[in-house]
Design a protein that fits this description.
Strands 2-3-1-4-5 form a 5-stranded parallel β-sheet, with helices on both faces. Helices cover about 50% and strands about 10% of the residues. It has about 210 residues and is an alpha/beta fold. Bound molecules: cytidine-5'-monophosphate (C5P). The site of cytidine-5'-monophosphate has 14 residues, from helix 2, helix 4 and helix 8.
Length: about 210
């Protein structure tokens, strides 16, 4: 079984995807981390993330980079959103994601285009959203828990800019798949959001697939 979890930054999709993976006993891939690694590598190479050639070269990042705590920073998230605009970068990362999704037994992947591009055949698709205010507050608490100094206003502005870039790009924009179940987590506590996601996947598994 493939479960696709898509949605904007800090919507809760990562938490939900991890919980679904644990609940259904499936491996999980956070695909945003791959784009973050490309953005970070581009910076380390001294390249311009808006330049398609420099961004594509950064797709050859070493595996060890995926463990770099700097990948979780807001700055790297911004770089990821810039390199992810280039179709060549998306193509370079496609195979790895598709192979993960189609491994025997299935998988859970979270990102922006899992249900639309990477695994349109997924048996269950969730599109997780939350208001900008709720997402900015969550990200703020997360950042402060990690000891990162950043204001709520700066986070909200960054989220809005990334949303706009992710939604308006030509290739694989952030959009819900036709057969995705929407889940708004603005008013939900962590455990409530997880329970709702599990219920949505179980309900989907009981239904015939949409073709
Ligand atoms: O989800 P996360 O915030 O880690 O993703 C960082 C950036 O990577 C996103 O803003 C988005 O631009 C890009 N991304 C993407 N497609 C994915 C996952 C992430 O374009 N499947």
């Amino acid at each position: 079984m493939i479960i696709a979890v898509d949605g904007p930054t800090a919507s809760g999709k990562g938490t939900i995807a991890k919980a679904l993976a644990a609940h259904f006993g499936l491996p999980h891939l956070d695909t945003g981390l791959l784009y973050r690694a490309v953005g970070r590598q581009c910076l380390l190479d001294g390249g311009d993330p808006d330049d398609a050639v420099a961004a594509l070269a950064a797709c050859a990042f070493p595996e060890s980079l995926l463990l770099d705590p700097e990948l979780r920073s807001e700055a790297t998230g911004g770089l990821a959103s810039r390199v992810s605009v280039h179709p060549t970068v998306r193509r370079a990362l496609y195979e790895r994601q598709h192979a993960f999704a189609t491994q025997p037994g299935g998988a859970v992947l979270d990102g922006r285009d899992i249900g639309t591009v990477i695994a349109p055949e997924a048996e269950a698709k969730l599109f997780v959203t939350a208001s900008v205010e709720a997402r900015a507050k969550r990200r703020y608490l997360e950042m402060h828990a990690q000891g990162r100094e950043i204001t709520l206003e700066a986070i909200a502005a960054d989220l809005a800019a990334r949303d706009e870039r992710d939604r308006s790009r030509k290739d694989a924009p952030l959009v819900a798949a036709r057969d995705a179940v929407p889940l708004d987590t603005s008013e939900l506590k962590r455990e409530e959001a997880i329970a709702a996601a599990i219920a949505a996947v179980e309900a989907r598994l009981d239904q015939p697939a949409v073709t």
